């Protein structure tokens, strides 16, 4: 039995989608379960099969080589025989999910094995509206308070979940409960929106919408506990797919510039129903340089041309550093080993997948932040006080770059010597073995060590 948690060690967009797809396919996973987040996510997957190894007479799948930008659909859909589940800790925007299913199918993806936990909470249109209104109110009070959320309603949905007024997917299938609950829900959402000048929410609209969602999603809504229990009993390989990274974890991130869910391996267990003791491997995904989208401190950030060089690196637009969900340019900087080391430790990472190593091909020299200087002292961790993080400056180790291309290299020994030395420097600085190097956006562009 092995459950493998794939989690972000940065501020999101580390390449979790690619790594989940690659690991699920190569280890023949039977279950891929997303444990947190919702429509705020954007996981890029470019699935591909090795044409040289196709059985005689069989063709490549319809999705082969296509670029999928997944928001709510799990990255397990390109693994034969695998069921993909949006787990109990996720929040689901039903209309966004249905539109995404249509998009994925149009690109040759098969969503017939995508299921939704009946415990997952529903992101209502009122949540999206509230997300935007709260951001505007923060900005009006002081521009620095704006968090730069994705405005997908994720924060308000988790807020209502914790406040125990939320609507769960399973509720859609319980007409009597809806009759009871929806009048209160419509009134309560109206009250919450009115505080920011939004709303009102009409009960009839909400009831019609719920009926439409129930009809469209009925066949996908399941008690994921039963599937997890079966998979564990069969000793199937399970992959737990994380959203965002430790830098924006609700407890461990740069609060308040965080998301509203737990992003670490502990949450992977708590929010999936896979017991802690069943998680035998934790793959921490880290990008070979650091990126962040949204507000908050970023100690190793660079600007201008230096940032553009990171942002535009790589052969195709799909891998350039622009948010998958919002299209915003991502902030870029040198590899922050202080934050990554802390994230690896908090997650109990058993290995690091170091993605986008190919994006660093051709740099003369590279920098790794090994410590911070804060108010005249050297520190080796990320302070809990976010204002202190903003005052911290990086203390870099300079390492040489490399000239030979690493692009699409599939074996560790074939990586340029400089790239291997860079991975070794990351490993030493983070205290965690680098188990994979990503060498391109596609599934097979991955060198296992
Ligand atoms: P996620 O949210 O963690 O799944 O990551 P995103 O998909 O938002 O962002 C990662 C970006 O890097 C995407 O554009 C991927 O296609 C790209 N990517 C992932 N791994 C690699 C890699 O090893 N090399 C290159 N060049 N691009 C990669
Ligand atoms: P993946 O899964 C990068 C950021 C937003 C904002 C903060 C809170 O692709 O890594 P939210 O909408 O969650 O309330 O926004 O978190 N953020 C992401 N940044 N990748 C994501 O997802 C993100 N999801 C949210 O920019 O700073
Ligand atoms: Mg992303």
The percent of residues in helical segments reads 25-40%
Per CATH, what is the topology of the largest domain? Adenylosuccinate Synthetase, Chain A, domain 3
Low-confidence parts: none
Shape: globular
Distance from first to last alpha carbon:
22 Å
Major sheet summary line: 10 strands, mixed
Strand order of the largest sheet: 9-7-5-2-10-1-11-16-20-21
Bound molecules: guanosine-5'-diphosphate, 6-O-phosphoryl inosine monophosphate, magnesium ion
Tally the helices.
12
List keywords for this structure.
449 residues, alpha/beta, Adenylosuccinate Synthetase, Chain A, domain 3, Adenylosuccinate Synthetase, subunit A, domain 2, 12 helices, 21% strand, binds guanosine-5'-diphosphate, binds 6-O-phosphoryl inosine monophosphate, binds magnesium ion
Short description:
31% of the residues lie in helices and 21% in strands.
List the helices and strands and how they pair.
Elements: E1 2-8, H1 16-26, E2 31-34, E3 43-45, E4 68-70, E5 83-86, E6 91-92, H2 94-106, E7 114-117, E8 121-122, H3 125-141, H4 154-162, H5 175-194, H6 203-217, E9 221-222, H7 224-233, E10 237-245, H8 265-270, E11 279-287, E12 290-292, E13 301-302, H9 304-311, E14 331-333, E15 335-336, H10 337-347, E16 351-355, E17 365-374, E18 377-379, H11 386-391, E19 393-400, H12 417-430, E20 434-438, E21 446-448
Parallel strand pairs: 1-10, 1-11, 2-5, 2-10, 5-7, 6-8, 7-9, 11-16, 15-17, 16-20
Antiparallel strand pairs: 3-4, 12-14, 13-14, 17-18, 17-19, 20-21
Helix pairs in contact: 3-4, 3-5
The structure holds guanosine-5'-diphosphate, 6-O-phosphoryl inosine monophosphate (IMO) and magnesium ion.
């Amino acid at each position: 039995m092995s459950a493998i948690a794939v989690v972000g060690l940065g501020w999101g967009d580390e390449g979790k989608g690619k790594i989940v797809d690659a690991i699920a396919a190569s280890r023949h996973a039977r279950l891929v379960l997303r444990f947190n987040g919702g429509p705020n996510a954007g996981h890029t997957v470019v699935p591909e099969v090795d044409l040289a190894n196709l059985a005689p007479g069989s063709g490549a799948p319809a999705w082969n080589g296509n670029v999928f930008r997944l928001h709510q659909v799990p990255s397990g859909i390109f693994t034969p025989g695998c069921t993909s589940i949006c787990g109990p800790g996720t929040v689901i925007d039903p209309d966004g999910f249905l539109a995404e299913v249509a998009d994925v199918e149009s690109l040759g993806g098969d969503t017939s094995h995508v299921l939704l936990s009946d415990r997952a909470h529903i992101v209502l249109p009122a949540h999206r509206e509230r997300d935007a209104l709260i951001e505007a109110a923060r900005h009006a009070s002081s521009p620095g308070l704006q968090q730069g959320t994705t405005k997908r309603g994720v924060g308000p949905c988790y807020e209502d979940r914790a406040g125990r007024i939320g609507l769960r997917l399973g509720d859609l299938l319980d007409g009597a409960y809806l009759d009871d609950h929806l009048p209160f829900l419509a009134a309560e959402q109206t009250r919450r929106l009115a505080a920011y000048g939004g709303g009102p929410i009409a009960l009839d609209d909400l009831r019609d919408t719920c009926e439409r969602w129930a009809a469209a999603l009925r066949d996908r809504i399941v008690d994921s506990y039963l599937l997890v229990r079966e998979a564990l009993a069969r000793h199937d390989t399970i992959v737990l797919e994380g959203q965002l990274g430790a830098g924006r974890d609700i407890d461990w991130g740069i609060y308040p510039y965080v998301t509203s869910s737990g992003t670490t391996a502990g949450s992977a267990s708590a929010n999936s129903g896979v017991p802690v003791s069943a998680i035998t491997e934790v793959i921490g995904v880290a990008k070979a340089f650091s990126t962040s989208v949204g507000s908050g401190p970023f100690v190793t950030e660079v600007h201008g041309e230096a940032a553009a060089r990171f942002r535009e690196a790589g052969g195709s637009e799909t891998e350039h550093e622009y948010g998958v969900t919002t299209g915003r340019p991502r902030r870029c900087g040198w590899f922050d080993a202080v934050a990554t080391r802390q994230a690896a430790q908090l997650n109990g990472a058993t290995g690091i997948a170091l993605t986008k190593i190919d994006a660093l091909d051709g740099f003369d020299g590279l920098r790794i932040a090994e410590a911070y200087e804060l108010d005249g002292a050297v520190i080796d961790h990320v302070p809990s006080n976010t204002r202190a993080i903003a005052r911290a400056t990086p203390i870099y180790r300079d390492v040489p770059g490399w000239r030979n291309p690493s692009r699409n290299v599939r074996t560790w020994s074939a990586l340029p010597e400089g790239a291997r030395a860079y991975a070794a420097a990351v490993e030493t600085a983070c205290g965690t073995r680098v188990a994979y190097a990503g060498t391109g956006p596609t599934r097979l562009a991955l060198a296992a060590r």
